[in-house]
Amino acid sequence: MVEGARLESVYSVIAESRVRIPSSLQKKCFSMYFFLSLKNYRIEQNLIKMKKLFFALSLVGMLMTQTLSFATTNLLTIQEAEQQEDAVVEDAMAEETMEEEAPVVEEEASVMEEEAAPVEASFTQELKKRFIEGGPGFMGIVLICLILGLAIAIERIIYLNLATTNSQKLTAGVEEALSSGGVEAAKELCRNTKGPVASIFYQGLDRADEGVESAEKAVVAYGGVQMGQLEKNVSWISLFIALAPMLGFMGTVIGMIQAFDKIEAAGDMQPSLVAGGIKVALLTTVFGLIVAIILQVFYNYIIAKIDSIVNDMEDASINLIDILVAQKK
To answer: Which is it for the CA torsion 258, 263, 266, 271, positive or negative?
Structure first.
């Protein structure tokens, strides 16, 4: 374009100067001017085409961008709608499944309740199971304490019930025998009567010839002997009452030690490692306390029975001394 302008300016200068230029040179100048003008025209046309092409490409890009965004939005909307429909369908299916399974669950619950009744009824089986889980070592020792304590308690209860007599009737019979047959008749009555009161009466009447004081001393001394007979082996029951919980607590301590040993060996705190030791600990403690409670009930009954018999013995001894004093007068 610049060269064409220069040629055009040169051509105009030559034309204005009216200088005679050969025709061949003029033709060459005209041909060059025409060629350059045509070239400039083509360049301008190409630029216009490029601008149109660029504008068309921009328009197509904008249209494609809008189309993609619209399609993406529609796709997301469709997916959300499908998810909502799937959720609604799943909820409906879940409700139908729950409605169908509800009677089945109720029937299973009723069956389980019916089966649970005999399981709960088998107390001995459950007790045996827990005893084995607690470990034979300490559980066996606690069981031995229970057996020995119950044996002594039953023996004492039988003995104390046999030792219980009607002291008022015996006192009235001794007084009547002394009035009618003398001391020997009263002694024969006491010899044929069971119980500590009759034995004390016999010892007092046996010393009656030596005086009231001698009879009183014999009654007091033999009363102590009878009290010792009543309290025989009761201390063993109190020992077992104290020993059973101690053994249970010892099982607790040993079970915890075993649990911590397992944790140390494994290097990790897992419930399965601790559960065994803790179960042994708790079961031994529970059984020890149960044994202590059972034996404590029997022990209290025996002590109350002994106190009742001792009070009866003291009252009867006082009445016997009063009768002997009255006979001396």
So the answer is: positive
Residues in the chain with pLDDT < 50? 2-4, 7, 10-11, 13-19, 104-105, 111, 116-119, 121
Closest CA to 186 of 209, 212, 208, 205: 205
Q: Domain spans of the chain?
A: 2-80, 130-328
Q: Which amino acid is at 53?
A: L
Quote the crossing angle between the two packed helices 182-191 and 167-180, to the nearest 10°: 150
Closest CA to 276 of 253, 259, 254: 259
265-318 residue pLDDT tens: 777 667 766 676 677 778 888 888 999 999 999 999 999 999 999 998 888 888
Tokens of 292: 């202590």
DSSP letters for 87-101: HHHHHHHHHHHHHHH
What angle do helix axes 212-230 and 196-206 make, rounded to 10 degrees? 150
pTM score, whole prediction = 0.58
Would you call 309 helix, strand, or coil by DSSP?
helix
Helix (H, G, I), strand (E, B) or coil at 20: coil
Q: Which two tokens stand for residue 35?
A: 């060629």
